Amino acid sequence: MKAPRKESHRRSIFDETMEPFYRAAELIKLHPRVRLELEEPDFEHIFYITIDARDRLVPLSTEEEAHFKDLPASSVKAGEALEPLANGQFVLHRRALLKADITLREGVLRIPRRGLFRIEKGGPKKFKAYRIQHNQVRGPYKGGVRYHRDVSLDLFKAMAAEMTWKTAIADIPFGGAKGGVRIDPAAHSKEEIEHVTLRFIYKLKNILGPYFDIPGPDVNTNAGIMAMMMRQYTDGATNPHALRGVVTGKDVRIGGSEGRLKATGQGVVYCLEEWARWRGTSLVGARLLVQGFGNVGSAAAEILHAMGARVVAVQDAYGTVHDEKGLDVPALVAWCHANPDNLRRTVAGFPGAPALPDDDFWSLDADIAVPAALGGEITGEVAERLRVKVVAEGANGPTTPEGDAVLHARKIDLIPDIVCNAGGVTVSYYEWLQNLRMEHWTEQEVHTRLERAMKSNYAIIRDIALDRPQKTPQHDSRPFAIGKETDMRTAAMVLALKRIEAHYLLEGFSQ
Ligand code: NAD
Question: For the chain, give me the number of helices (H) and strands (E)?
Fold first, then answer.
């Protein structure tokens, strides 16, 4: 497992994330009251949820094992009754004991072919949960739900604010929110995750809704979890079908949109296509580094691979694989995402390519880097080592302010997260529209709209950065120019703030 990043000198994540806000606010002389409205979230909800956890089978340490050498094997019902967890433990469902023949000593039993385990009692467990609603001047609060052991108020405040900027840049009528639960999903069963999800929505029920706050998927949450959220929210309502738009990222069979699953990765690719067109280069044969091989990273890699790019290395939380000739991406996707034995869905152990020491990943020679894991990975030190032409930020906040400064100084192009990974929330908006209208669009319709939106918003930001206001058949950057050049991240924020400020200036403040 990768060592955690050194964070000793970091300011709060929120403070760091707000730096481009203050830069852009200064540049455009943002109205002082609008500035106050946007500086802090509208609401910070922090609460606790409880569930009843099942008993566990916890593997013994090597020293402990010696003490139970002679313990005879027990015969228990395996399969689903002993549910394997990604942390090496098993959840012990009671049906495992049906017709079982068990030998227990000091709470330890031996399971054939699996080894020695101690039974650890389950019981009630408590988790800290969050929903931060940052701003809703442009439309209902919108933002993902993350299940992770490292979440905090600081992180969710930053991510909720970023959603406000992102929805404005995508030019969709939503505001910004974010939330989730401090939990390690690798240590919990499917049933426990379901219970956590249902309690989370139960507690939030009064402050969600298709016209108020609309969750979606983020790290460690997916279409299955969105389905549970929708059910919990709509159950018992007289008009449940009219409420489907309360969450996005659902399975297409229950009101999700075609193209949503890969929309964020697809959006990254549309930005890269527009970047390549502008730079007069081609993505065919381009060499790619991808960090994170979950929803975003694997979709971006798959699409780029199919277009003829070469994915030379992929890194995730557990390891790195590398092949200078280009990895077999479909085989890597199958290894990670369609392999029941690969519980951590990791690239580590992929038989199709050798492993690479994690530290060498960012130093590899390539054309494009797509960070698509967690925040803060491209530090100043990493940015110094990069040997790529462009960083396309699939993840939220993958580059630190120090990393930004180095990229800028080294003239490495940057496609900032708030535009680069906006494909997901853009198709979430299409999903919401389809739900409200009871429609179902084809994948082609979704892609045509998404491509136009991503490329034109990215081009507007580039024009702001280069101070080249222009109107083309695809985009019009003239209303957003600031009369001088700036970096891409500040330019993206300029676009967001100008679109948000217009609401306050034209609608006024109700008080
Ligand atoms: P995911 O849970 O599907 O995948 C996360 C991936 O990152 C996994 O492969 C994991 O192993 C890897 N990872 C975790 N910690 C790592 C580390 N320290 N080093 C290297 N790899 C690590 O998550 P996702 O939905 O693909 O989201 C990835 C990023 O994209 C997040 O920052 C998320 O906020 C952002 N994002 C996601 C969406 C979306 O639609 N899913 C939309 C916008 C932004």
Answer: 15, 16
Whole-structure pTM over 0.90, yes or no? yes
On whether the CB atoms of residues 309 and 302 are closer than 8 A, the answer is no
Closest to 32 (Cα-Cα) out of 497, 507, 499: 497
pLDDT in tens, 467-506: 999 999 999 999 999 999 999 999 999 999 999 999 999 9
Which of 150, 226, 247, 316 has most ligand 1 atoms within 8 Å of its beta carbon, as the pocket-test mutant? 316
Task: Show contacts of 272-281: CB within 8 Å, 24+ apart.
Answer: 272/304, 272/368, 272/390, 272/392, 272/415, 273/455, 274/454, 274/455, 274/458, 274/459, 275/390, 275/392, 275/413, 275/415, 275/458, 278/459, 278/462, 279/389, 279/390, 279/413, 281/367, 281/389
Residue 220 Cβ contacting ligand 1 at under 6 Å:
yes
Told to judge if 178 belongs to the known catalytic residues of this protein, a careful annotator would answer: yes
Q: How many CA atoms lie within 13 A of 359 on its CB side?
A: 2
413-415 β-sheet, strand order: 319-322, 310-316, 287-291, 368-371, 390-392, 413-415
Tens digits of residue pLDDT in 124-163:
999 999 999 999 999 999 999 999 999 999 999 999 999 9
